[in-house]
Amino acid sequence: MQWIPTLTLFLFLYPAGWIVSHFFYIFDRGISPNNLSIIGTLISFILFLAVLPSWGSIRWKTNNLWLSIGLDVNNKFSALRIFFSGFIFSVFLIFILCIFCFICGWIDRLDYIKFTELLNAILLIVGIVFAEEIVFRGWLMEEMALLFGVRRGIILQSTIFSLAHFRSDISLLALIPFLTGLFLFGLVLTLRRTIDRGALWGCVGLHGGLVGIWYLIDSGMVVFSIDTPYFLLGPSRNMVNPIGSVFGIIILLGTLFFQRRLFARTGRFLASTVNASFKDEMP
C-alpha cells in the first residue's frame, strides 16, 4: 500500500489550491475562471514545495531533498553547463524543423522578436517548465521508481505526464498524436536526466528551450507558408504544436533509438537517490 501517500498528496494539494484561490474571488468578483485556475495551480505548487522537504525526510529517508530530485546547486558552474547542454539540444531540434521547412519553401519570412514576447518566453522557462520538471522528472520519477521499479516507473511517469496535458478542446484524431508525442517527450526528458547523471538541470534546459523557442516562433518570429502541411507543425490545423506532429514524433523516436543504451543505466542514477530500504523494489 506504498502508493497511498503518493495519491493522497495529489488529492490534498489540488483541492487545497482550489479552495485557497477562491478567496481571491471574494475580493475581486471580476476575476476570470482562467486566472482563478492559474492562481489555484500556483498555490498548489507552493504547498507542494513546502511539503517536499518533509516528504523526502520521512518517505525517502534523505536529508538532502533537492539533491535527491536532481537540483544540486553546490556546483553552480556544473548546473549551468548541464542546463545549457539541454537548451542547446532543444535549439538543435527546432533548427532541424525550421531548416526542413525552409528547404521545402514553407517559410515565408523571419520577423523580429518583441521584448514582451521574449520576456514571456523566459517566464515560461523559469516558471511553468521549471515547476513541471520538479514535479514530473523530479518527485514523480523518484516515487514511481520507489513503487514500481525504475523501468516501469519511467513508463508510468511519462504516461502521467502525457495525460496531465489532456485537452478537451481538440478532436480525438488530434488528441492521440498530441498525447503520444508528450509520452515520448517524457521518455526523452528522463533520458536527459540519465545523461546528466541524475541532475535535473538538463531537463529544464531541454524542456524550457523547446517551449520557449516555439513560443517565439508561434508569436511571429517565423512566418510559415499557408501551404505548409499541418501534420508537420501540429496534430491539426487548429493546433500548432510540433510535439504532436508527425515530424516531432519522428525526431523523438529517433532520439530514443540512438540513445537507447543509456536507459539500461537509468536506474543507477535515479534509484541511487531513493532510500536503500526500498532496493528490493528495483528491477
* Secondary-structure-derived class: mainly alpha
- The low-confidence parts are 274-283
- Give the number of domains: 2
The number of helical elements comes to 13
Principal-axes shape call: globular
Q: What share of the residues does DSSP label as strand, in percent?
A: under 5%
Count of beta strands: 2
Strand order of the largest sheet: 1-2
- Spatial extent as radius of gyration: 20 Å
Average predicted confidence as pLDDT: 84
H/E series, N to C?
HHHHHEHHHHEHHHH
Distance between the termini: 19 Å
Proportion in helices: over 70%
Largest sheet: 2 strands, antiparallel
Describe the protein's architecture and organization.
This is Metal-dependent membrane protease. It comes from Prochlorococcus marinus (strain NATL2A). Keywords: Hydrolase, Membrane, Protease, Transmembrane, Transmembrane helix. With 283 residues, this protein is an all-alpha fold. It has two domains: 1-59, no CATH class; 66-281, no CATH class. The protein is 71% helix and 2% strand. The protein contains 13 helices and two strands, in the order αααααβααααβαααα. The chain has a two-stranded antiparallel ribbon with strand order 1-2. α8 crosses α9 and α8 (172-195) runs parallel beside α11 (246-258). The two termini are 19 Å apart.
